[in-house]
Write a structure and sequence with these properties.
The complex is a heterodimer of chains A (361) and B (417). By secondary structure, chain A is α+β, with helices and mostly antiparallel strands. Chain A is built from eight helices and 20 strands. Chain A folds into two domains: 226 residues, Rossmann fold (3-Layer(aba) Sandwich), CATH 3.40.50.300; 118 residues, OB fold (Dihydrolipoamide Acetyltransferase, E2P) (Beta Barrel). Chain B is flat, with a radius of gyration of 31 Å. The chains are: A alpha+beta (361), B mainly alpha (417). At the A-B interface, strand 6 and helix 2 of A face helix 16 and helix 17 of B.
Amino acid sequence: MALKKDFVKFDKVDKSYDGKVLVVKDLQLDIEEGEFVTMLGPSGSGKTTCLMMLAGFETPTNGEIYLDGNAISSIPPHKRGIGMVFQNYALFPHMTVYENLAFPLRVRKIPKDEADKKIDKALSMVSLQGFAQRMPGQLSGGQQQRVAVARSLVFDPQLVLMDEPLGALDKNLRESMQYEIKHIHENIGVTVVYVTHDQSEALTMSNRIAVFNDGKVQQLSSPDELYEKPVNSFVAEFIGENNTFAGEVSDISGGKCKVKLANAEILANPISVKGKGEKTTVSLRPERALINPSEKMDNIHKGKIEEVIYHGDHTRVRINLLGNSEFILKVPNSSSNLDIKLGNEIKIGWNSDDARALDPK
Amino acid sequence: MSSETKQILTTDGIPLEVSLKKAERRNKIKAFLLVAPLLFFLIITYVFPIGDMLMRSVDDKMVTNMLPKTFKAMETWDGQELPEEEVFEAFYLDFRQLVDNKQEGKLSTQLNYTKNGFKSIIKKLRRKSKNFEEGNYKEQIMAVHKRWADVEYWKAIKRRAPAFTGQKYLKGMDMYKNESGEIVSVEEDRRIHRVLWLRTLEIAFFVTVFCFLMAYPIAHLLATLPMKYSNLLMICVLLPFWTSLLVRTASWMILLQQQGVVNDFFVMIGLVADDARPEMMFNKTGSYVAMTQILLPFMVLPLYSVMKTISPSLMRAGKSLGGTPFVAFWKVYFPLTIPGIGAGCLLVFILAIGYYITPALVGGASGTLISNQIAYHMKSTLDWSFASAMGLMLLSGVLVIYWIYNKIVGIDNIKLG
């Protein structure tokens, strides 16, 4: 059975709450069956609204959403058969874990012995066997979260939505839960649409990430592509750390362009610039720039170290480079980096391929 | 285990427990002093009056104190035949004493409570006893009136010997102790209190039900509307609180009377004929309408405070898991509001069961409650002991309801705000 390419399809979806502002603009998004897609974006970017429209708690103002080929805008939430994990887990506090999990099965009139089997399976999936008779209030945040995941999966939905499910957990627990959810997804092959504003979470878990801003999908691609090849400066800025130079294209030829800064000129990779005279922001990942480059690089400039912050496995160095005093370098902590001292002048080099000339900010 | 037996000492050698207690004593005293005024206030305004009521309701010392010699002499009387001369003599001596102190009227009132017919024979005895000769009082007293020769009247006197009595409570239940000491109900057509108790329970119950039915949607709306609308609605709910109870009741009188606004409206829209305007006041309807309106906020507020804490995502979760909106409401939302329902219903029921002003003004004859009867005995008949007895019966009724509620729902499940 071939997996459907457009298992979930947002077709030209608009959403406005007040008739004045569009929170989602002309959204076009296809999600493949069995895929783990994350909607990532700052708060107010429309990602949660999209999820709510998919779940059925909001209706699109315009356009249509298709699930497995069927238009679902007019189907009420309880008939969509979509599992959902909520931000605050939304476990029913007056029911035991067992009853919480039994709820979706009971409303589907599944016989008790079959339901019990499903519940056992779901609980073992999140390694919570033996917790069936506990009340949600007696569980820790991580356990409640797992119950919520189990509950959203227990009735074998084809699609599970997760709305910032890890937001309330502490950092360590959040990380281990990320892997746990990822493994569950890999094991049962359910399609997951995941909403978060935490980019590292998105990068860890997803097959593809849709970066939202201003009601629009800025870029939809795999985590590595998103990080390595952002298509605009919002994505470059939002995902990971980023050094930027604002300037103007002075020459463009042979897959390379020259960008004129205030008092220098650098070589860059033209991504969204077409011709001379265009304003641009050049984006460069901190780990792509080297100190005292030994290999030949087409951009080598001198800068002054302004700040050195020790981070254990690496050192963050802030450098005043070509008029940008916020230029960040991440230097692995090894014995060879001896001349990283405050106030030192050092040489910094990078390849023009890694410096992406994007739209101006 | 060994660590438990070993005493932990502080650095200056005092056991830790002792020094902890010492350190906390000051705070405990401070805390007690802070609550002391309230405690004092409660004792004076609550414990003491209720204790006094309890005493009053069972107190029967009046006759005991008026006829001390008689009751002493009666101790040896078997209560079957007419008593011996010594009882009559003692009674005569007690009675002379009362006449000298002009107290015989009270005695006749009190004895008349026990048995009808004492009033006239005591009056007669007072007149005749001035001319009694010494000795053979039995003959002389029996000659005053034939009832004095009737053993039933002497039995009636003897029944008043104990200093305490439960007869006011029996009276409150339309029962009494008959001559042979059995507890029996009064004749059917004289049972006024049982009717009142039942009506009180009935009205309190239905007022609670009406309040609940109206308050639940209001509270839900209040809890889910955006702030600017919910504030306005909240003011509407609370507005009656800021108006005097009397004014509210009086305005219901204006609305509900036969020539009132509601009736006029009914006639205008043709619901009723002009000459057949329904009576909506001075009967149960009046009590129901006015009490429901007045007690509504007491139901709305606890419900609101509980609903406010229920996350809207719970209902969403219920729906996303496949529950229809009704199932999601009934299985998820409703059970979570039970603490509020419990608090609201208990509050409204208890307030309604002791409601006084509103039923007195709009209830008429068929809409009055037991509290109106209590007030009647306080103010008109001055039978305070009976009023106290009924007050305590009401109080214990409330406590019983509270106890039942605690058994069924659990009092920790209550949430007032």
